[in-house]
Amino acid sequence: MTARFCMLKQCRLKPVHGRSQKRRPAARPRPFLLYNPPGGGYRPVVSLQNPVTDHQGAHAMNVLLINGSPHKNGCVFTALSEIAETLHKQQIETSMFQLGTQPVRGCIACMKCREKGEGCVFKDELYVELCRLAKQADGIIVGSPVYYGGPNGSLCALLDRFFFSASALVEHKPAAAIVSCRRGGSTAAFDRLNKYFTISQMPVVSSQYWNGVHGRKPEDVLKDLEGLQIMRTLANNMAWMLRMQEKAALPLPAPEAARQQTNFIR
Ligand SMILES: Cc1cc2nc3c(=O)[nH]c(=O)nc-3n(C[C@H](O)[C@H](O)[C@H](O)COP(=O)(O)O)c2cc1C
């Protein structure tokens, strides 16, 4: 996290001037950020507990699960929960980032992130939190509902800004996309999400089919037995890739000294 992000957080935490700590109303829980709440596990799916990770100070591996749906307990969440449960069986922790229903700004191509190297100029809560969670994650899985044959526009708005300004936080971390649709368009949405990873030097984890479940409601997804198996296979492959990286402990490949950018303009 950059110093600027830290400053932002500190500002928000300052007590309101003139009021005592006692009289301040309790902070409202933020419904769209349900990452590892105190006590472990997700709300409201209490059965999804993170594994106990007393590794005597050793680093417990963590996979960030991004629910790009406005439905915090919908179909995408159901698929991500299957992944979380499988990862937990492999003693890998998960953090859940909920996009929710907040308005999300898109990239305005101001290029300030590239000029200053301090992240996106818009330091909204979703962006700052995504950066924080991505930095601490070892692997990332992005989930989206299919909207008109593509991923949710709000999710893409956030991911455009995140990957354009902060992809250094996730380079070389294994990644995967999953999608949920009622009927069609899943592979186009899946392809679109994978493009974020392959331009950011992230190894893409695969499964036994293109990562999708079908349903309009979570109950439908639970009936999609093949879809759920695809999610479990993906989670096991993610765990395998993370363990391989950990075991090999190889230094990251060094980039070339100068990065080329050749625009197709005559
Ligand atoms: C605006 C909008 C567009 C949609 N477009 C498609 C589509 O192109 N193809 C499809 O099969 N389902 C489409 N759906 C249905 C959702 O993708 C599907 O219900 C999904 O599983 C919902 O996931 P969620 O419960 O996590 O939000 C659309 C839904 C909405 C609200």
> Strand share of the residues?
5-15%
- Share of helical residues: 25-40%
Give the tally of β-strands.
Answer: 6
Radius of gyration of CA atoms, rounded to a whole number:
19 Å
Overview of this structure, please?
There is one protein chain. Helix content is 38%, strand content 12%. It is built from 8 helices and 6 strands; from the N terminus they run αβαβααββαβαβαα. The protein has one domain (31-36, 60-248): 3-Layer(aba) Sandwich (Rossmann fold). The N and C termini lie far apart (40 Å). α4 crosses α5. The longest helix has 24 residues, at 225-248. With 266 residues, the protein is α/β, with parallel strands linked by helices. Strands 1, 2, 3, 4, 5 and 6 form a 6-stranded mixed beta sheet that branches. It is globular. Bound molecules: flavin mononucleotide (FMN).
Topology:
Layout: H1 3-13, E1 62-67, H2 75-89, E2 93-98, H3 112-116, H4 125-136, E3 139-147, E4 150-151, H5 153-166, E5 175-181, H6 186-198, E6 212-214, H7 218-223, H8 225-248
Parallel strand pairs: 1-2, 1-3, 3-5, 5-6
Antiparallel strand pairs: 3-4
Bound molecules: flavin mononucleotide.
What would a concise description of this structure say?
The chain is of the alpha/beta class and 266 residues long. Helices cover 38% and strands 12% of the residues.
